[in-house]
Amino acid sequence: MVLLLHRVLKPGTPRKGWLLVASYFFYGYWDWRFLLLIGASTLIDFACGQRIFDASNRAVKKRWLYLSLAANLGLLGFFKYFNFFLTSGAAALTALGFQVNYTALSIILPVGISFYTFQTLSYSIDIYRGQLKPSQSLLDFSLFVAFFPQLVAGPIVRASEFLPQLVQEKPRRADDFFEGLERFLLGLFKKVLIADMAAKIVDPVFQDPDLFSAIALVAGALCFTLQIYFDFSGYSDMAIGLARMLGYELPQNFRLPFLATSMTDFWRRWHISLSSWFRDYVYIPLGGNRGGRAKTYRNLVLTFLLTGLWHGANWTFLVFGAIHGTLLLIERLGRQIGSGKTESTVLGRTLGFFYCFAATIVAFTVFRSPSMRVFLELAERVVTGAKSDDVWFSSTRFAYVLLLALAYHALAFFEVRRKLARRLDPWIWRPFFYSTIAFLILAYAPLNERSFIYFAF
Known about the structure:
With 457 residues, the chain is mostly helical. The protein folds into 2 domains: 13-167, no CATH class; 174-456, no CATH class. The protein is 72% helix and 0% strand. The chain has helices at 2-8, 13-28, 34-54, 58-95, 113-128, 138-146, 159-167, 174-207, 214-246, 263-269, 272-286, 293-310, 315-337, 346-368, 372-383, 395-413, 416-423, 426-444. α2 runs parallel beside α6. It is globular.
């Protein structure tokens, strides 16, 4: 009996079991019915992964892979895009003169479905490619899918990165806990002190652009660009920090993207886990940069259209993806025509920084707009230099957000936090860091509760 329990309860099994229970509780607390969805996705891909690996020939492997793809993309497509394609199709038929009667379904989007679906898809695809062996433990695989720190908003973790940590758990160190706590607090700081304050400027601007002047609208667009970065990177920092406190490593998701000098550079720094996922599982399988310029450009634009659509069922997300895809295409064309030497000069990098930041603001303005009509109204007011009383705009709050964002980037660029932590004794550094963050949050953070932006995706 003891030997049987030893085989079933391998080292770390009770701990992983508790983590899985905590993860399911965390996910089910919002709506317990969606536990059935994530559970079904887990079982399907666990079984398909083993069948792909055991299959004797490529045709059988491919059938099991297609089953995994159909199940995952089918669930994602129904919950996230069914009503979008239904209403868009009906609108197109109506424009052609057909009379269409339809009823949209009341579908609740399961939180985090875009993230864990991509994780399980990469598991099946990597096994099919021969790059990964299937997990022999349903417990380990379930925890990989449902691990609560990053479950609802990433980073998107691949099985090859996380499953080995469950099979051979490294000894947990006190330094891991404290370094994870520092990362968590930094993410909380970014969320509540910068992103949530920026939201107080952003929300009124995009709710009714007609109330604001051109200058206020530009400031609102800039604030949303800062808001979405500090909100999303703040969540990623909190997820990475919490995982580190529990003894696990998650991949980096951001590397100061607003310091990019091209859109190509931007996507090496922004939402890295998503951009690398689309590169490895969409762009390269489409042919990547093989097959000539025309096919390369097609693959690039198509990949970013899908990247935009991944964010949600709205034409604004498709246009967001199209903007990035087009700019990346133009940059690639420019590098092929020119020598590329201008990018290495100080002037070239400076011009590239301003171009990239301006393009990012425009793209995120489309992203934030409730519809293309609202974006076009906003753009028209900016271009025409519209004037208004700006009743709801606070220049003081705007200056606060801008200065805090600049201060963060300066400190992060020069790695001040890491250098101080390395030079100061931990018994001095940690109390100083914790108390400073706590004081700033208590003194300046908005009192209202505001969910993370990427919870909606």
